[in-house]
Amino acid sequence: MLEQFAQLTINGLITGTILALTGVGASLVFGIQRIANFAHGEYLTFAAYAGLLLNATYGQNLVVATAGAMAATAILAVAIHFGVLRPLRGRGLVATSLITVGIGLMLRDVIFMVVGPQTRQFEIDQTAVYDLTLVRISPGQAVAIAITIVVAPAVALLLARTPIGKAMRAVADNRDLAAISGIDVERIGTYVWLLAGALAGLGGTMFAVVQGTFDPNLGFQVLFLIFTTVVLGGIGSAYGALMAGIVLGLAMELSTWSGFAGGLEARFKPVLAFAVLIGLLLYRPQGLFGRARVF
Amino acid sequence: MTPLLLEVDGVSKHFGGVAAVDDASFGVTEGVITALIGPNGAGKTTMFNLISGFMRPDCGTIRFAGRRIDGARGDVVARAGLVRAFQTARVLTRMSVLENMLLAAKDQPGERLGMNLIAPRRVARRESEVHARALELLDLVRLRHLADDYAGTLSGGQRKLLELGRALMVAPRMILLDEPMAGVAPVLAQQLLDHIQQLRQRHGATVCVIEHDMDVVMSISDRVIVMDEGRVIAEGPPDAIQRDERVIEAYLGRQGHADESQRGRPA
Amino acid sequence: MDFLNLAFWTFVASTAGIYAIFALGLYVQFSMAGLPNFGHVAFMAIGAYTMAILVVRYSVSLPVASMAGIAAAIVLALILGIPSLRLRADYLAIATVAGGEIVRYLAMNLPDLTGGPIGSIGLLGPGQIALYNGGWQRSLDELTTALSAVIGAAANRDLTMALMVWSIVLVLIVLFRRLERSPWGRVLKGIREDEMAVTAVGKNVFAFKLQALMLGAVLGAAAGLLLALQIGVFSPDDYQPTLTFYAYLILILGGMNRLWAIPVGAVVFSLLYAGTRFLNFFPLSLIDSGSRAFLRLFLVGFLLVLFMAVRPQGMLGNRRELLLEK
Lengths: 295, 267, 326
Hints:
The complex is a heterotrimer.
Chain A: H1 2-33, H2 40-57, H3 62-85, H4 93-115, E1 120-121, E2 130-132, E3 135-137, H5 139-161, H6 163-173, H7 175-180, H8 185-211, E4 213-214, H9 218-233, H10 238-254, H11 269-283
Helix pairs in contact in A: 1-5, 1-6, 1-8, 1-9, 1-10, 2-3, 2-4, 2-8, 2-9, 3-8, 5-6, 5-8, 6-8, 9-10, 9-11
Chain B: E1 4-15, E2 18-29, E3 33-37, H1 44-51, E4 59-64, E5 67-68, H2 74-79, E6 82-84, H3 97-103, H4 115-118, H5 120-140, H6 156-169, E7 174-178, H7 186-203, E8 206-210, H8 214-220, E9 223-228, E10 231-236, H9 238-243, H10 245-252, H11 258-263
Parallel strand pairs in B: 3-8, 3-9, 6-7, 7-8
Antiparallel strand pairs in B: 1-2, 1-4, 4-5, 9-10
Helix pairs in contact in B: 3-6, 5-6
Chain C: H1 6-32, H2 41-58, H3 62-84, H4 89-109, H5 111-114, H6 134-151, H7 157-181, H8 183-193, H9 195-200, H10 205-231, H11 242-254, H12 261-275, H13 289-310, H14 319-323
Helix pairs in contact in C: 1-7, 1-10, 1-11, 1-12, 2-3, 2-4, 2-10, 3-10, 6-7, 8-10, 11-12, 11-13
């Protein structure tokens, strides 16, 4: 039972860190652009296939493939920002949400048409297992741990120490106040999309690598986990999203632990996540860590 | 002494650590125009929100016509006969001026889904009464010629008039007006003033108005309530209030230019 | 398949009518009351599942089971609506789509109740094929016989179905036109514009919103029943969130706030949707037939974006009204 606990904790930490990093981007976007981006999942899908192209077709290693996917997805996110979302700003919350739904459908189905519906996998040994006595880790998980251990602190540093990171947080927290204090909100908005795109790129490839096999529904399946992370951390709060992702990842895995009232059956994990999301929206829309804030 | 129509007793409302309204008590007599004045941030609009059921007080009681209304929902308070207008007029922009008026009518059985199918005649009968009343009130607020226009095409001042007319459709016993003159062109402002006075004379309505312009306050109100920093600091007839030390202190005490900013408040 | 296949187009006509009913439910919630319900498909699912389970497992008669399906949708509307209707628009959108997904996941993961991922066919457990629409087929046959007395040999089951569905659409449109212009509809419209103003004149906004949600749920469930009866089998995969967005597209094609434009939107949508299978000329012939399904969904997304961007008033609406400032 202890072993199961340790294993679930590791799995939860891995999923959680990926969710956290993706969530940071989504949360900043939500805070700055005031939109619930229903296409965010498809950014992850796009990234997974961009990474796969580099990895499987061009024989690059996973680090290069991930970096390439991050760059490509960042460009995609900025292109959609300038091409569609920015010109259509000011149509209201619902209209914008519907537009992102449309963008998501377009992206997903273009990907379906290009790569087909069959499942794919990265060039990585899916059968090997590293046995660390208490826990066992797949090569995919090992890669994810290695990459996130580098990226997560880098993102935290970027947001905490650099002027641009501070500006992003300021704008996401209070756009009007930031504008008054002389921050170029438009420019920061573009950078936020770049960052959110890159992090979605990271998240997409990492989810694909950790899961082993994936298909073009990859991103849509985790979209609501990303939303949950964003809301749990408090919309617009980067640190909140970092914490929330890890908490959510752990909570989802550990809910299946047999020491926890017998454990929830794994197939009900998504239901649990949705229920948590709805509960949060209803009773703590400012997030677990956020202050109450009037919109 | 006539019984009070509205009694506010020991009401407080905190936001975070700040008391927006702090142990405020006052009463309003039926058939009287009362002005609620005070410096910016004194808690006047919060007080209106508390009375009209748009916010719930932390403690204290509010009675309207003898009935407790503190903590009651806004629509319940409105149906009890206490109707408010907003600081920035809230008109329904993509509905016609006439529809804005009709919407506010009371006792329309057609607001119940099934009644439109079971008793369409009754609904239609009430609708024609309501229609006549709406046109009458639109005449009063001089908007009848715009009845079929979208409310979104009205000017700020016209919106204030429409909101006043709409509030009257509810046939209120008491009406709360939050800065009815703000943003209204002088000609319209004079009309509004006339309406407010007519309300009392012709309809016997009780009016409570938040107003910054002292000349207006002195000319229309029978009674003045002064708030400062969430507290009610003075209550009385206008001429007495004008001489009240605490009121002068509240307006002039803290900043030298307060007089200017309060009297000639830009619209 | 032949482009001029009459049976196929009759079938498409029925589906279009069913989508019109489905979209009408969303119209009540979204266009009339301003509630962005992104989980409308859940009402369709719960209606169909309740009906099928009652018929197959408990041998309840079809009319009673159908009523129960609609009642179940109302209960779901209450469960979803009572806590969440106070949320601001985009939170409500996220909460409702999550609610819809919960229904779908439960349908998938409670095989003892729902038949699991294989759907209605598995309702009786492994090895037994469950059918719920036998009674329906018999009634349709009787109606078809009656119809053939009028129009002769042209009568067939699909045509009867199409006529029946469109009669329902017509009745509903007339009914809702009346409701929309009633004082009830006026209050909903006011809520769509500004809840606080409507509260300030003494209307219980929450109660009206809940009524709109429930009425929409009834129509959603009715569409779900008709679709399930027409097709004969269904599975959790038939209730993907995309279905809700088809309904949005139908509303948008027709122009958001025009009741009579819904059937037009539904027909255009269905023609587009069914018609894409005939797009087999160059260069589209390069796409293999399996991928056409994705092309269709791509088109749905493209039209959503395009119409929101260029013609938010739809094909037929009045732009001036939509662009009036709040």
